[in-house]
UniProtKB/TrEMBL annotation:
This is Amidase. Its EC number is 3.5.1.4. Belongs to the amidase family. InterPro entries: Amidase, Amidase_CS, Amidase_dom, AS_sf.
Amino acid sequence: MRRVCATDLCPYNSSPVSVCSSARGNEVRVTGFVSEEFEGLQAQVLGLAGRQVSSREVVERSLRRIEATRRTLNAFRVVRAEAALREADEADRRLAAGERLPLLGVPVAVKDDMDVAGEPTAFGCPGDFPPRGADSEVVRRLRAAGAVIVGKTNTPELGQWPVTDGPAFGVTRNPWSIEHTPGGSSGGAGAAVAAGLVPAALGSDGAGSIRIPAAWTHLVGIKPQRGRISTWPDREPFRGITCFGPLARTVADAALLLHAASGSHDGDIHRPPTVDVVAAATHEPRRRLRIALSLRPAFAAVRNALAPAVRTATLRMAETLEALGHEVVEENPRYGPIGLAFVPRSMAGIRDWTARVPDRALLDVRTRANARGGLLLGGEVLRAARAAEAPLRRRIGEMFWRFDAVLTPTTAVPPLRTGALAGLGTWETDSRMIAACPYAWPWNVLGWPALSVPSGFTEDGLPMGAQLLGPSNSEPLLISLAAQLEADLRWHEHWPEGLPAPR
């Protein structure tokens, strides 16, 4: 593998780092310590089980932080303050009685495309949405694991864009720089976890919508195998390209939330075999891996360029993998015409969702245009797109006879500025977002696992991410590899500090 020297952009230091940027007009501090105990998901589980802290205490702290950052970060669409405190008190009673569950008493958040009983599911859209009568299957499973759902996080309309803003709720901002987006479409979830409002959150991923915010907010984000987490009451959201998955600060926390959320509903179409993701986070890979380094994205009829800082960070991640004993070889997946299998399914999913909106006239003009595209690309075109999935799996999967995993950048650029896509036409919006985020969406077509980990910071202190891709049901391998990287790079020790008011 060709090596590059990147010591001038070293992303992780043993002492706190202070990065000043006159261009951004504020100081960003990346710290090497955690100021309070019980910040992570596992730490809270252990603290609650050991009676070192109560569920009411950690839930109250979560709610205080949400309120304190409401005008700055704007991460939440719905906050369940009273309900969450009642649930915390009940969790404390159960803990005092000796009951133990994977997430008993821990506050978590879910994205606003998941049903929570008694709350609306607006999926980023404006309008008067009625409260849902029942929990979605994934929320039911989180409750069964003992989690306290503190709220629902912001997302752009129907999860279409890699930024999180819209007329329904305003602008969601990045804790590392409030002048930049946390990404999308699970940007509210990413902002909430990165700022320590909750220890972990569930997002959804139809074209990188978990992995993009993970990269741009310095988190671990997992898009699991299709069907690993039930999407019921939707059997196949966005015609099979969308799935749910965790965002967390550490690999172990992400694996724990993935474990708690996993499982099938009787109505689900996809039912992958069970895998042990929690155990995978406790050890490095059992053998030396052969990893393909790919910097060339799939063809998407849009010109894109890999930002030098992102390229350097990805190559540095490849060097780290080599230093850990793995073999890294430059090779690109044979993507072929995979874009033709993605667009009709994406547009059909948007059209499906607009049928649930109380007032379509309130939707963004780009949303309405994409819904019309879903009609034009339906029928035979949509059936052909679905039929192409199996041949594409065979074509791309051939490389996993020779490689264990693929390493790519998560995005082509560092975080976009807030408002970067506002006021644009449909084509210009699509062109800009595809150019910024060309690496994630092919794995949604295939339905295979993918994972984003922090790869460092730009000179201005903006987070970047690297993506690990695997074949069918490969979450344990990807998670163990990510855990090995985390033990070496210790990205979880770096937190954003200071949230000045937006200018």
